[in-house]
Amino acid sequence: MVTKTLHNEEETLLFGEEIAKGLKAGAFCSLEGSLGAGKTCISRGILRGMGHKGHVKSPTYPLLEIYNLDTSTIYHFDFYRITNPMEILDAGFREMFSGTSICLVEWANKGEGVLPTPDITISLTFNQNSRNVSVNAISQLGQQCLEGLA
Ligand SMILES: Nc1ncnc2c1ncn2[C@@H]1O[C@H](COP(=O)(O)OP(=O)(O)OP(=O)(O)O)[C@@H](O)[C@H]1O
Ligand SMILES: [Mg+2]
Predict the structure, then answer these.
(1) What order do you get walking across the sheet with 73-78 strand by strand?
(2) Pocket-testing residue among 4, 7, 8, 9, ligand 1, by greatest number of atoms within 8 A of Cβ
(3) Does residue 147 form part of some domain?
(4) What is the pLDDT of residue 74?
(5) Confidence of residue 142 (pLDDT cuts 50, 70, 90)
(6) What is the pLDDT of the chain when averaged over all its residues?
């Protein structure tokens, strides 16, 4: 487990870039924390670290944004608006967790029973005007992803 205090938005972005360095094909990262905790912000950092140069929109309304980068494809989901996990199956999202793409998922708890177990959890909590972050490996793939993370 790696824990850290992130004092401002830029530190959240930079820590996301650090996480990106180790991410392996097929990794499912669950981004946890309440509304406004910084899940999209750390996803921006991860995408930046994976080589994405453009804007990163919150996927709250479309539920999914896809990034086809030179070295990998990244699916950024936000399941906040999901009311029944079956919606995830019906939309064909479940299959997207079985391939080599990296999945960054906000509100993965909305897909409980339908989604696989994450490889990594990234949990953000409020700490006055800052955030605390805790990164945990759940699977062997997750452990490999986090090996270099200080
Ligand atoms: N380390 C930090 N310290 C203080 N503010 C931060 C930090 N990291 C991010 N923020 C701020 O937190 C706010 C919310 O961030 P973000 O949109 O990423 O939250 P979220 O967890 O994705 O929310 P939602 O559940 O609505 O999708 C942003 O205004 C961002 O600037
Ligand atoms: Mg968000």
Answers:
(1) 2-6, 130-137, 120-127, 28-32, 102-106, 73-78, 64-68
(2) 9
(3) no
(4) 98
(5) very high
(6) 97
**What are the phi and psi torsion angles at 40 (to 5°)?**
-70, -40
Residue 150 has pLDDT above 90, yes or no: no
Nearest alpha-carbon partner for 32 in 23, 42, 24:
42
**Closest ligand (CA of 58):** 2
List residues near ligand 1 (CB under 6 A).
6-9, 11-12, 33, 35-41, 58, 60, 78, 106, 129-131
Longest alpha-carbon distance in the chain: 40
**CB of 133 closer than 8 Å to CB of 9:** no
The token pair that represents 41 in the structure block = 């912000």
Q: How many domains does the chain contain in total?
A: 1
For the stretch 7-66, pLDDT in tens is 999 999 999 999 999 999 999 999 999 999 999 999 999 999 999 999 999 999 999 999
The CATH number of the domain where 34 resides is what? 3.40.50.300
